[in-house]
Specification:
Elements lengths: L17 E7 L6 H8 L2 H4 L2 E7 L7 H6 L4 E4 L3 H8 L4 E10 L8 E4 H5 L13 E4 L5 H11 L9 E4 L2 H10 L4 E3 L4 H7 L3 E5 L8 E9 H6 L1 H21 L10 H11 L4 H5 L14 H13 L11 H4 L3 H11 L3
Parallel strand pairs: 1-2, 6-7, 6-8
Antiparallel strand pairs: 3-10, 4-10, 5-8, 5-9
Amino acid sequence: MLTACGGPKDGATSCKDVNVEVGTVHSLSDALLYIANDKGYFAEQGLSVTFRSFKSAGEMIPYLAAGHLAVGAGAPSAGFYNGIARGIDIEIVADKGKLVTDYDYMPLLVSKKLYDSGQIRSVADLKGRSLAEPAPGTATASTAQALLQSVGLDYSDVKHTFLGFPDHIAALQNGSVDAALTTEPAASRALSTGAAVKLADSTTVYNGQQLAVLLYGGTFSKERSAAAQCFMNAYTHAAKDYAAAVRGGTWNGPGNQQVVDIIARNIDAKPEAVRATVPSYVDPDAMLSVDSLQRDYEFFVKHRMYKGKKKIQFESLINRNFLDTSAKLATEGK
């Protein structure tokens, strides 16, 4: 167990009774945070963690930048990188969710009516059709580009409709969109209700896409580095539990019942509803895919979604120190 902070010194000799405020979106993507809390990993590090709910990860950014929130979630979106270009003090520190083979938790869906009629049976048939995405300039756009590019099309060859993931279901059902890139749990609901059919597995064209990341506010990372290390120790412990529970892209791995129950309890869902979803992949050591982050950034630049005048410097945006120290402590059995 990781019971010692072992991180950079910031004047504190331990993390005992240190409170850390953490942003969540009350969804499946917050699984590791809930596991670390409910299994006592934060407490083992001496931390007291307070969860603060937000409607979206984007809403957390100003709070992280201002030091009003220590830890949050993020997605490699154009808006995020535009904020970095403006000088907001935030660091990407760990994995929070990837698209990996057998873990296609954001499939390409198509209206069942259009599929059954034979009008859309392949990605190539999407030319000129409407595609639902959550918002302009998200990592989903880069996923769409990879899918379209695989059949000789471009992102500009489809019409883009921006809707929150839960709204994709009704839109596919009533015909207001033809297809959608939809994350869990909305994806499974769309399939089970007969609103949609799975048209393509996103991981076949973009394996390892980094869709969600853990963020530290600069104040937390720099001025409270001991607490930041303790938090990472607990988080990586939870990552191993989660990775084991969803081994092979199902909820049937070692320790799965406890993990499912923790997630269900924290997002106000039934355990069977959690099991009905395809889990996201998280690296057992919470390691990031930097190549994916850079690939999506280049997509935003190419399509003029990124408005910054200077190129993003990923070596300063991504802070691997906390992960590296956690890995070292785990190896040493501390």
